[in-house]
Amino acid sequence: MKRVAILISGGGSNMIKLVESMVGDHPARAIVVASNDPCAGGLTKAAEMGITTFSVDHRPFGKDRAAFEAALQQALAPHAPDIICLAGFMRVLTAGFVQPWAGKMLNIHPSLLPKYKGLHTHARALEAGDAEAGCTVHEVTPELDDGPILGQARVPVMPGDTPDTLAARVLVQEHRLYPAVLRRFAAGDKTPVLLSGE
Ligand code: GAR
Predict the structure, then answer these.
(1) How confident is the model at residue 179 (pLDDT cuts 50, 70, 90)?
(2) Domain 1-101 has CATH 3.40.50.170
(3) Which of 171, 173, 175, 176 to mutate to test the pocket of ligand 1 (most atoms within 8 A of CB)?
(4) Could you tell me which of 141, 37, 43, 57 has the C-alpha nearest to residue 97?
(5) What is the pTM of this model?
(6) Superfamily, domain 108-198
(7) N or C: which end of the chain has fewer CB within 10 A?
(8) Ligand 1 pocket, mutate which of 14, 43, 140, 169 (most atoms under 8 A from CB)
């Protein structure tokens, strides 16, 4: 059974879907949920689901990313995760943290990568006049929002969409895609999962 740590920064809706998926014959189990924000709403929700939680607040570390990442790594180590899932984790991780987890750390990003790395993905897709949008799960490499793609889900852009309405449509697909990719990945299969929704 693979041990999965999930890192969040916010409400944790993707985290909840991942935790809920890891039951029965699933090859992995959620063992810990961690956040860089002690107030992240997802921490309470994870605790309510019976998952161990902790936070390492990034703010006292200021600009010292390496020190923050060392503290995070140290706090994760006793849980002995086999896989780390970034699920709305909004800190950029440097190579020092990423490299030891090469091939074992996944991220979900709300765009059809390689389009729109970084922030404000939905606004940028709308500004570009794209006919479709979506989300991507990929392996984390030191370059931001890069790394081998493990799955994508596409949705149409609708007339009158705002960044919020598009984000909501994409989020529905995030909740399908991430659990599907994790199940496959935990079983040792990196074949991309390709979904489309409405
Ligand atoms: C999700 O839409 C996720 O794709 C995005 O943050 C949201 C978190 O929502 N992640 C990023 O933008 C990463 N750069 P959640 O906390 O409800 O899962």
Answers:
(1) very high
(2) yes
(3) 171
(4) 141
(5) 0.98
(6) Formyl transferase, N-terminal domain (3.40.50.170)
(7) C
(8) 14
